[in-house]
């Protein structure tokens, strides 16, 4: 059994490394190439790279696990994400691609914000970089937790060995090949993920333990008449919290940086259609794995100690070892595509927004590329330490980091691209208020219980507070010189 699985995984690992070597030879001569791939991504690579870096291990672990336990009502998260992603492609993508090139050919989100608001450039770039590194350390750790769970559940191995192995493979191709390697591997990984999520529900339903949609639905409603209801146990606050996941898209640096790298604004509509199609198919597949996986477990008496491992368990039970290895590769693809993107964006901020801006302004291109590689290693090690707890929940870690980015950067990105009266002071205020609100909301437990009742997802108060801070401070600190800079740009 193990031999066939490892053959498939070995082929997958070698392919990822080969792509890294190809990217190293093609696109690492300058910091622009290492960080943004020379702004030359095709629509298909941009779309699947954005999707794969977005849909981390939670797509094959956290979301199916939530549906396995609570039923179809958990699908509201997916609906909120689809709506948020579509608005992100429509509102942010074309404007960010055009304005980041116009404003000093910015290579990072903090770099763009600094060029957009010169009155607070230094402070804004540093604060942005710190927020990115802190939240990405947590976000990256969620991916490593998924890798550890795969290794422990599928092979009975040590959890931390799986965490270290996942990080090690990602570091190899990310350090070597930079953004182009990350984007090309994301494209391949996105194809693998979607194919796996199409295959798995079909096999579940047609296996001996499945026997079709009708019988699966009957078994589920026997144990809980409301299991297949989208309104089961959903309160107004719960529905708002689920739908609010879509707000996070506007502030995810590892996703919106793909918009900066597409080869032209004219390619954005094509990329949007490809990306949204991929996302909808993948989310439907993940929902089906959770729902039909529960039906299979009921029929066969399968004991599932950790619902987040249902994809892993079914991969092992229902498929030939070579195919099982492919499905494990799909899970690793979901994990590694996000981890690599996050490591690169975090290292880019450390390199461009702290090292180049604060420590050594005259650094050469080759020096910046090497510093970026060292920064990837540093952020990876921090994430490794955070992922040390094997009881960590993938969806929980993702939700905290997603909220942090969405609240800190979401209103900031939207308003900086669309509102000319926004000031640098307003940008700094929104960034800090959004991040601090999310951290305090989590720390005080208000996402679990609010006024003795149900808690609300921290991105909601964080997004609102950040938006208000930007607007109010911008009106209070109107800087006409900054507005004139905007008109000249």
UniProtKB/TrEMBL annotation:
Q: Name one GO molecular function term.
A: sodium ion binding
One BP annotation, GO: proline transport
Identify the domain of life: Bacteria
InterPro entries in the record? Na/Glc_symporter_sf (IPR038377), Na/Pro_symporter (IPR011851), Na/solute_symporter (IPR001734), Na/solute_symporter_CS (IPR018212), Sodium:Solute_Symporter (IPR050277)
Q: Which reaction does it catalyse?
A: L-proline(in) + Na(+)(in) = L-proline(out) + Na(+)(out)
Xref: Pfam families: SSF
**What are the record keywords, sorted?**
Amino-acid transport, Cell inner membrane, Cell membrane, Ion transport, Membrane, Sodium, Sodium transport, Symport, Transmembrane, Transmembrane helix, Transport
Q: Mention any one GO cellular component term assigned to this protein in its UniProt record.
A: plasma membrane
**Intracellular or extracellular location(s):** Cell inner membrane; Cell membrane
Describe its membrane topology: Multi-pass membrane protein
- List residues traversing the bilayer: 6-24, 75-93, 123-147, 159-180, 187-205, 236-257, 278-297, 317-347, 368-388, 394-417, 424-444, 456-478
Role of this protein = Catalyzes the sodium-dependent uptake of extracellular L-proline.
> What is stated as this protein's family in its record?
Belongs to the sodium:solute symporter (SSF) (TC 2.A.21) family.
Protein name, UniProt field: Sodium/proline symporter
Q: Which organism is it from?
A: Paracoccus aestuariivivens
Q: Which gene encodes it?
A: putP
């Amino acid at each position: 059994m193990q031999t066939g699985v490892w053959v498939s995984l070995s082929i997958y690992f070698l392919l990822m490394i080969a792509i890294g070597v190809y990217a190293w030879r093609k696109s690492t001569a300058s910091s622009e190439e290492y960080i943004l791939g020379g702004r030359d991504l095709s629509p298909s690579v941009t779309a699947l790279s954005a999707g794969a870096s977005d849909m981390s291990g939670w797509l094959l672990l956290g979301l199916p696990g939530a549906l396995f336990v609570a039923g179809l009502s958990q699908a509201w998260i997916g609906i909120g994400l689809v709506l948020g992603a579509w608005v992100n492609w429509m509102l942010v993508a074309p404007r960010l691609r055009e304005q980041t090139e116009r404003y000093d050919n910015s290579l990072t989100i903090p770099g763009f914000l600094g060029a957009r608001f010169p009155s607070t450039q230094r402070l804004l770039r540093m604060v942005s970089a710190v927020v990115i590194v802190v939240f990405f350390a947590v976000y990256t750790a969620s991916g490593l937790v998924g890798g550890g769970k795969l290794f422990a559940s599928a092979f009975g191995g040590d959890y931390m060995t799986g965490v270290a192995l996942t990080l090690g493979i990602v570091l190899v191709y990310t350090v070597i090949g930079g953004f182009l390697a990350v984007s090309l591997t994301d494209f391949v990984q996105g194809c693998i993920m979607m194919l796996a999520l199409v295959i798995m529900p079909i096999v579940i339903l047609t296996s001996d333990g499945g026997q079709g949609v009708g019988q699966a639905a009957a078994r589920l409603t026997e144990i809980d008449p409301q299991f297949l209801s989208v309104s089961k146990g959903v309160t107004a606050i719960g529905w708002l919290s689920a739908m609010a996941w879509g707000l996070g898209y506007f502030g995810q640096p590892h996703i919106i940086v793909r918009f900066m790298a597409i080869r032209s604004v004219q390619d954005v509509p094509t990329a949007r259609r490809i990306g949204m199609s991929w996302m909808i198919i993948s989310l439907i597949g993940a929902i089906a794995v959770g729902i039909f996986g529960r039906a299979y477990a009921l029929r066969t008496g399968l004991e599932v100690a950790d619902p987040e491992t249902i994809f892993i368990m079914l991969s092992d039970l229902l498929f030939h070892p070579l195919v099982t290895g492919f499905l494990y590769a799909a899970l690793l693809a979901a994990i590694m595509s996000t981890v690599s993107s996050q490591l690169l964006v975090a290292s880019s901020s450390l390199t461009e927004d702290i090292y180049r801006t604060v420590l050594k302004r005259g650094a050469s291109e080759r020096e910046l590329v090497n510093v970026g590689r060292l920064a990837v290693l540093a952020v990876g090690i921090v994430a490794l330490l955070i992922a040390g707890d094997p009881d960590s929940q993938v969806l929980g870690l993702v939700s905290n980091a997603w909220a942090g980015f969405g609240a800190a950067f979401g209103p900031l990105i939207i308003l900086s691209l669309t509102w000319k009266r926004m000031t640098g002071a307003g940008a700094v205020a929104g960034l800090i208020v959004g991040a601090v609100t999310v951290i305090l909301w989590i720390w005080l437990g208000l996402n679990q219980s609010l006024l003795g009742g149900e808690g609300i997802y921290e991105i909601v108060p964080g997004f609102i507070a950040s938006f208000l801070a930007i607007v109010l401070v911008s009106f209070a600190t109107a800087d006409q010189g900054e507005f004139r800079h905007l008109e000249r740009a």
